[in-house]
C-alpha cells in the first residue's frame, strides 16, 4: 500500500447536448487533475452523458423524448468512449472512477467504472436499486458488482448515491476490507438539504468502514437548469445538493468541500490513518460478532437466460434417438 495517495474529486457540469461533449470534459478534467499530481480521480454519478435530471421534474407522460435521447447518447461498455478514458488513465498513470448511463440493448443502467492506472477496467458495476424517479429510467444491478478491487492506489469499493442507505450493501464492501471508497451523487438536485445529507452519509461510512471516502457531485449552470424545465418553481429542485468531499477514516474533511460551482477538490490521503482507526474499531474484525450477526451475499450475476444442452446428458450413440427412447435406454 502506498503511504500517501493524492485524490481528486471532480465537480463539473456535463454537456447536456452530447455524449462527445461530456467525454471531452472528462478528458480535460483528467489532464487538469493529473497535472496537480492526482493519482485517483472520481467523477459524479452517471456523468456520461449526463444524469437524467428530466426524470425529477417531468411527469411520466412527458419524459419519452428525453428518455429516448438518453438512450441514443448512453454508453456501451466497451466503446470508443470507455477506451478513451482507459487510454487517459494509462497515459497519466491514474486510477479513474467514472459514472455512466450504460446501454445494454433495450435497457439503461446506472453504472460505475473503475479504471486502473494501467488502463485496465477493474470494475463495472450497476446500481442495485435506482431511487424513486430513477426507476423510470434505469434497470437494477446485482450482487456481483458489490466487489472490492485491487488498484494502484489500494483496495477500492464503490457505491452510487442512495445505495449508501442500504447498510448491507455497504457492509459487503466493508467485509472485503476496502481502503478507499469511491462514491458519487448527481449534484444540483433536491436543494440544500441534499448536500447536508450527503455529508453526513459520507462521514459516517468513512468512520464505520475505517476507510477514506472520495465523493464527487455534479453541477448545473443556470442556462442548463432552464433548458431542463422552464418553470421557476420546478427549477428550485435542480439547484444546490452538492457535496464534493474527501473524508478520512476518522470522519474528517481532508480539505473544505465543494458545495457550489465547478472545481476539482484535491486531497492527500495518509493511508496510515486506516490502521489508526481500525485499531480502535474494526467493524468487520475485532468489533464484529459474526456468530450473532453476519451477511449472506449472493455474488452470482443476474441471468435472464440459462441455456442447457440436454445432448450432453447422453452418449453419442443415444443422441440420434428421440428423447423418450433415449431416456428408456
TrEMBL record:
Signal peptide coordinates:
none
| Alphabetical list of InterPro entries matching this protein | C-N_Hydrolase, C-N_Hydrolase_sf, Nitrilase, Nitrilase/CN_hydratase_CS, Nitrilases_CHs
**One Pfam family here:** CN_hydrolase
Return the similarity comment: Belongs to the carbon-nitrogen hydrolase superfamily. Nitrilase family.
In Gene Ontology terms, what is one molecular function of this protein?
Answer: nitrilase activity
Protein name per its UniProtKB record? Nit6803 family nitriliase
Fetch the PROSITE patterns from UniProt.
CN_HYDROLASE, NITRIL_CHT_2, PIPLC_X_DOMAIN
Domain (CN hydrolase): give its ranges: 5-271
- By its UniProt entry, which NCBIfam families does this protein fall under? nitrile_sll0784 (TIGR04048)
| Top-level taxon in the UniProt lineage | Bacteria
Amino acid at each position: 500500500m502506498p503511504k500517501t495517495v493524492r485524490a481528486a474529486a471532480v465537480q463539473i457540469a456535463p454537456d447536456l447536448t452530447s455524449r462527445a461533449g461530456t467525454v471531452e470534459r472528462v478528458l480535460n478534467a483528467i489532464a487538469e487533475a493529473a497535472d496537480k499530481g492526482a493519482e485517483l480521480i472520481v467523477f459524479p454519478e452517471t456523468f456520461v452523458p449526463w444524469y437524467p435530471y428530466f426524470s425529477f421534474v417531468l411527469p411520466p407522460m412527458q419524459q419519452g423524448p428525453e428518455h429516448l435521447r438518453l438512450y441514443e447518447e448512453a454508453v456501451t461498455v466497451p466503446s470508443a468512449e470507455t477506451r478513451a478514458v482507459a487510454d487517459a488513465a494509462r497515459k497519466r498513470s491514474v486510477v479513474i472512477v467514472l459514472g455512466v448511463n450504460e446501454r445494454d440493448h433495450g435497457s439503461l443502467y446506472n453504472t460505475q467504472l473503475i479504471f486502473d492506472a494501467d488502463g485496465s477496467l477493474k470494475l463495472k458495476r450497476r446500481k442495485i436499486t435506482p431511487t424513486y424517479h430513477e426507476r423510470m429510467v434505469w434497470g437494477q444491478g446485482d450482487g456481483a458488482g458489490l466487489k472490492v478491487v485491487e488498484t494502484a492506489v489500494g483496495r477500492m469499493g464503490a457505491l452510487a448515491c442512495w445505495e449508501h442507505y442500504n447498510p448491507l450493501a455497504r457492509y459487503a464492501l466493508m467485509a472485503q476490507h476496502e481502503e478507499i471508497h469511491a462514491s458519487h451523487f448527481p449534484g444540483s438536485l433536491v436543494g440544500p438539504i441534499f448536500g447536508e445529507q450527503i455529508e453526513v452519509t459520507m462521514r459516517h461510512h468513512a468512520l464505520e468502514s475505517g476507510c477514506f471516502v472520495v465523493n464527487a457531485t455534479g453541477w448545473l449552470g443556470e442556462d442548463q437548469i432552464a433548458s431542463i424545465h422552464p418553470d421557476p418553481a420546478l427549477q428550485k429542485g435542480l439547484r444546490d445538493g452538492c457535496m464534493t468531499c474527501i473524508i478520512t477514516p476518522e470522519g474528517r474533511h481532508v480539505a473544505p468541500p465543494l458545495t457550489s460551482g465547478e472545481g476539482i477538490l484535491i486531497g492527500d490521503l495518509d493511508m496510515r490513518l486506516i490502521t489508526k482507526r481500525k485499531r480502535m474499531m474494526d467493524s468487520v474484525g475485532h468489533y464484529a460478532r459474526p456468530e450473532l450477526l453476519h451477511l449472506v451475499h449472493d455474488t452470482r450475476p443476474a441471468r435472464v437466460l440459462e441455456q442447457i444442452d440436454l445432448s450432453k446428458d447422453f452418449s453419442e450413440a443415444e443422441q440420434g434417438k428421440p428423447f423418450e427412447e433415449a431416456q428408456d435406454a
